[in-house]
Specification:
This protein is mainly α. It folds into two domains: about 160 residues, no CATH class; about 140 residues, no CATH class. It has 15 helices and four strands. Strands 1-4 form a two-stranded antiparallel sheet. Helix 6 crosses helix 7.
Length: about 350
């Protein structure tokens, strides 16, 4: 069965890597469209140089840290393989009685031949240009582009250094704050909080989208496509349901008209947060039960920070504070970790109605 699945993945591999087969491609398309829409219809005065700084800082940090992470991983693999071969060689010597020094084979080409284990003399060391494609995970650039677009939509600043800090720390958080092969901070949110706390000219403009209904329909429609493809409807619906419920209760308690509630909920930044940020499957809890509990807690903390401490950036601080809770929830309710490749293959099979028996 595993062999058959492997053959299927190999046959579908080229098709899945095509544009718009990965859910992240839709995210990039929609977020870029929102950015151009805001510039054209909301008269955003965004500076092109600051946008470029964000993209360069995110992509450059992703490239460098991916290279280092893969370099370290290859080194560990080389050491482990060397120890295994050495141990296997010694066992063979004891069985055969032949005193011969074991020559462990090193599968990695990232280190000099004398560092960990000798390479066969007939093996030719490839050039650095040949190593780069295997060291840098090109699909991970999608994540860097999504983070850049998210920061362009939500974060504002006056200096290039502010944007560089946000972009670099946003991507770095994926590599620094990890557990069990998974990062638990949302990169864009981490970049926003970092810029707000470490610089003096960063801010968030929650009301930049106005209160037009067609923006609401656009965000919900585009967000619905994303959460359907990644299978995280429960997170968005639970968060919005809990948050709207709390706002309704407060509105009734204070005795305000429904116009006030409508104005509070007609917030483009809130919808971007609900459909494009807290639905990141790589940084939120894996199990459905965990995500529901986590989303309710996120809505409650957002409500408290907004109406008790009067923070206009309450949603971002709430996500930052509750992100480490993902580790605890994943420990209590275990579930398989999300894989973009597996998700792309599942969506391809689902939407194109291809069965395993029809692929020769």
């Amino acid at each position: 069965m595993k062999k058959k699945t492997g053959i299927l993945e190999q046959k579908l591999g080229d098709r899945i890597t095509m544009p718009l087969k990965d859910a992240r491609d839709y995210q990039i398309l929609f977020l870029a469209s929102f950015l151009f829409l805001g510039i054209l219809t909301r008269d955003w005065t965004l500076r092109l140089d600051l946008i470029c700084v964000l993209f360069v800082s995110c992509l450059l940090t992703q490239t460098v840290l991916s290279f280092l992470a893969n370099f370290i991983e290859e080194g560990r693999s080389c050491k482990a393989e060397g120890r295994r071969r050495k141990k296997s060689g010694r066992s063979e010597e004891r069985r055969s009685g032949i005193a011969e020094t074991a020559q462990p084979f090193c599968p990695s080409l990232l280190f000099p031949p004398s560092t960990f284990c000798p390479l066969p003399s007939a093996f030719k060391m490839p050039s650095a240009l040949q190593l780069l494609p295997s060291l840098i995970s090109i699909p991970s650039w999608r994540s860097a582009v999504i983070t850049s677009l998210g920061l362009c939509l939500l974060l504002r600043g006056n200096h290039a250094a502010t944007m560089a800090v946000a972009g670099c720390l946003a991507i770095a958080s994926k590599f620094l704050f990890r557990t069990q092969g998974k990062h638990f901070f949302n990169p864009a949110n981490f970049g926003i909080i970092s810029a707000l706390t470490l610089t003096h000219d960063a801010w968030i403009s929650p009301g930049q989208w106005g209160t037009d209904w067609w923006y609401l329909l656009l965000f919900v429609g585009a967000g619905g496509i994303i959460v359907k493809r990644v299978g995280r409807w429960d997170t968005s619906v639970t968060f919005l349901g809990a948050y709207v419920g709390l706002e309704i209760l407060r509105n009734l308690w204070v005795g305000w008209s429904w116009d006030v509630l409508q104005h509070q909920l007609m917030n483009g930044s809130l919808l971007l947060f609900a459909f494009f940020m807290i639905t990141d499957p790589r940084s939120i809890p894996n199990a459905t039960t965990s995500r529901i509990i986590w989303s309710i807690g996120l809505a409650i903390l957002t409500f408290i920070l907004q109406h008790t401490f009067y923070l206009t950036t309450a949603v971002f601080w709430s996500l930052f504070i509750l992100s480490p809770l993902t580790i605890v929830l994943d420990t209590i309710w275990s579930a398989s970790r999300f894989s973009w490749q597996q998700n792309a293959m599942n969506n391809y099979l689902k939407f194109n109605k291809i069965s395993t028996t029809s692929i020769s």
